[in-house]
Amino acid sequence: MATVRSSKDNDPQIGKAPKKSVFLWTYKDPEKKGAVQSGEIEAVSVTTAKVALRQRGFRDRYLTLTKQKESLLGGIKSADIVGFLQQLSTLQNAGVSLVESMQMLRLTAKKTAMRSMIQKMMRNLQEGNQLSDALALFPKFFDATSVALVRAGEQGGVLDTVLRNIAEYREKDYSLKKKIRSALMYPGITVAVMIVVVIILMVKVIPVFAKLFHSFNAQLPALTQIVVNLSYWLKDHVVFLIFVPALLIAALIWAYRRSYKVRWQVDRITLHIPVIGKLLLYGATARFMQTLALLYSAGVPIQESMNTLAKVSGNTVIDAGVAKARESVLAGGRIADGLKETYLPDLSVRMLSIGESSGNVELMARKTGEHYAREVEEMVARMSTLLEPFIMIMLGGIVGTLVIAMFLPMLDMGKAILHGSGVS
Questions:
Q1: By the 8 A CB rule, do 218 and 407 touch?
Q2: Could you tell me the superkingdom of the organism this chain comes from (predicted)?
Q3: Each residue of 27-54: pLDDT tens digit?
Q4: How many domains, the chain?
Q5: In terms of domains, do 280 and 311 share one?
């Protein structure tokens, strides 16, 4: 893929260089019976892209250019990044240069988005930058932890080992997040379906029975009358009951993403929710300890390590506590002492303190992270086992109550009919 540079790109008097875009090109070679070639080219505009391709011998008449959408990078999954890091580690271990490694990975990448991202990294390396700088161009896929580790690996000459460790860490972290997400989504989806079923019964089915009962001028039992009254009320307010909660949830999500105070309050409340709060806390603790072990193994300086650790738990309250602990650590204190005032479990802090006392922080942090990761797995398994019958009992109780409420008048009318037949 060629890169077209304007003479104004690096002119300090012009200011910021024009933003370049990636164009996908196809060329039907008339000299090879219409054989199709394809590739990518980065340029400021279609015109400059065509000029660059024309210089390579392509004729406009047989050339097609389309601009690659930025959203294509959204097609990159966590598994793609893990695979990229593992392959790059292998190539580095074999002694292949970074630029050559990137070229090989770009040619073998199946996704257009991956090829585009690797191409930009390769170009950044060719300009004299380090791999950590190239990865930092894509914070969506390479967070501060990964960049800090790669930078430490570059300085220590163990880049291949660091890349392999990052890949393993990312794989474990993704698996942990997926398990927590699944544990939280299952009851949420089940309850949502239950609410929808009950609303349909109350708004569509119960009113039909109510009209039938009224046509017989039947005296409704107390339970049936309560259900019918509730059904009429829900029918009159169904729009309000659906859209207002939906708007409130949307507003909360919007505020959570944009306001630190809202995010802090929500994260604090979730930590106190029974079962769910413990699951989230253990997941955050496992992530924190595993990251600490990885940073120590790579030899990342303590100041940079604490800056990174204050962003990895996924919970604003825990991150704020770690950020506060950072000050005492930088003043010469121990990590465990600074973490005592955080939400992290006491056991994890004590285990880390033992590691600091014995001079083996990396091992103790890794063991602690593995312990809490196992705790998360066991909690997810228990939740799946216990929640399913509980939710089914609750759903059966609600639906059963509605069914009984509708059949009680029918039983009364049946008795009345039989009694009338006996009297006559």
A1: no
A2: Bacteria
A3: 777 777 666 776 667 677 778 878 888 8
A4: 3
A5: yes
